[in-house]
Design a protein that fits this description.
Number of helices: 8
Number of domains: 2
Strand content: under 5%
Largest sheet: none
Number of strands: 0
Radius of gyration: 20 Å
Structural class: mainly alpha
Helix content: over 70%
Shape: flat
Distance between the termini: 37 Å
Length: 147
C-alpha cells in the first residue's frame, strides 16, 4: 500500500489511472515469475509516458515482492502492512497507559513482552498465519533444489 502511495509522487496529478491500476495488480499475481513477466511488459508500455515513475518502480519494487517467497496461503496477510500497523497501534496503546517509564530498559521490556504475546497469538490462537503451510513450502523448496 505504501509503495503504491509513494508512486503517486512520481506522476503528474492527473495521471492515467490505468498505469497505477496495472501497478497495483502485480500484488494479486500467484507467483514471482508471473509478476516479473508482467512487470517487464508494464515497463515497456509506460516508459515513454512516465519515465520518472518507471525508473523509481524499477529501483524499488523488488523490496515489495518479498512476500512471494512465502506460501500462497500467506500472501493475503503479508502483502499488506496491516499486521505491523496493528502491532504498532497496540504498543502505542499500552505505552500510553504507563505514560512515564523510569528508564529506557523498562520501556523495552514492556514492548518486548507485548511483541512476544502478539507473536504467540498470531501463531496459535487466531491462526492468522498457519505455520504448517510455511513448513511444507520450505520442504518443497528443498526438494526442488535437490532435484
Amino acid at each position: 500500500m505504501h509503495f503504491l502511495r509513494n508512486a503517486l509522487d512520481y506522476v503528474p496529478r492527473k495521471v492515467d489511472d490505468d498505469c497505477l491500476m496495472e501497478l497495483r495488480w502485480f500484488y494479486d499475481r500467484r507467483d514471482l515469475a508471473e509478476v516479473k513477466r508482467d512487470l517487464a511488459q508494464w515497463i515497456a508500455k509506460w516508459q515513454t509516458k512516465y519515465p520518472k515513475l518507471v525508473n523509481w518502480v524499477e529501483d524499488n519494487i523488488e523490496e515489495t515482492l518479498s512476500f512471494y517467497r512465502l506460501p500462497l496461503a500467506h500472501h493475503k496477510h503479508m502483502k499488506s502492512t496491516n499486521m505491523l500497523e496493528r502491532l504498532n497501534q497496540e504498543i502505542k496503546r499500552r505505552t500510553l497507559v504507563v505514560r512515564i517509564f523510569p528508564n529506557p530498559r523498562s520501556c523495552l521490556r514492556l514492548v518486548r513482552a507485548l511483541a512476544v504475546e502478539i507473536h504467540e497469538n498470531w501463531l496459535e490462537a487466531t491462526r492468522y498465519l498457519n505455520m504448517d503451510h510455511l513448513r511444507e513450502h520450505k520442504k518443497e523448496s528443498l526438494r526442488a533444489l535437490a532435484a
